[in-house]
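[Q] Does anyone have a clean structure-token version of this?
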Amino acid sequence: MKISIYNTPLISQVNKNTLQNLLQYLIHNRFTIVLNKDKMTMLINDIPTMSRNTISEFFDKLHETNYEYFSFISTLFKSDIPECLLYNHFNVDIYELKSFKDSSLNILDTVPEYKDKIIFNLNTVLNKEQTKILDVITFQKVMVRSLCSRSYYNFKNAWINGSFINMLCKFYSIPIASNLSRLYNLSMSEMYNLAIIFAYFFVNKCTEIPPEDQRKLLSNYHYLGSSSNINNVTSLIDESLQKKYSSPYFDSLNKLVYIINEIAPKRLSNLDLKHFYTISRSFNYNSLVSLISIEYPGYWLYNLYTVTSGERNNLYFLMTNTNLLKETIQFISDLNYNPVFFSSFDPI
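[A] Here you go.
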């Protein structure tokens, strides 16, 4: 089942009071913090040509949309800035905020600068004179991360299509299982059983279909092994979830750790959520992004963009060691020219 980024543990502190403070700040400072289109056009046109990679390719494609999904602001000389505008692991998406069902947020629909926009505070990338984007790499990365998140939020029945979920699941389950396998000295068959657990968890996050249909999807993911073994493992997962939670839905990190304790090799029976977080902090240079990405597919897709653009983090080495890096680069490069993916950023 789809998860809102506001329901992930690290972002869940964005509560109603936080939203009210944000709302008041954006409205009261509207005329002094929002950079107009001419200003942004000048700043973006002044960006030097970067080496070609998947993030710069994405940025070039985004240029065709005139960056219409963003409201660029600068709070360099402001005080009392809401904390959520200063996060380096998260950007407020006004469009997704509507999921809070807070009627007071509707006023933002009357403000063209904010309606359905992703708020991008440029403080960390601009010079003090606000005449130049100094940190081009961060500027581009934030756009990619925000729109991967927007694309994920927009899906109804399934994210993009079955082929997309298949490949994304592969680039999630195999590296993470490989990481744990190395740490706990698992055999190859044990590692693939662990990968099935992660794949089942991830597919649940990328679809709104019943568990029995999720199992059918997984049975065709041949990189996980034989269909019979995939069915055996997923059946064990369903039985364990039903026994513990009276529900077959595999939809939280607590459930994921519980299942690993229950049906993975005994050496993993003492793994707890805190330890799992500890060993999951290095899939991105930004450790908070890495932790969010474990249960939030929009950020995992962003992880793949950073890895295929040259970021040498732990995920890069896991991809290399599992011979998935070349395939991942091709997947992300193809995605950059997929009109369905780019149309998934549009408000529905």
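[Q] Thanks! Anything notable?
[A] The mean pLDDT is 93.
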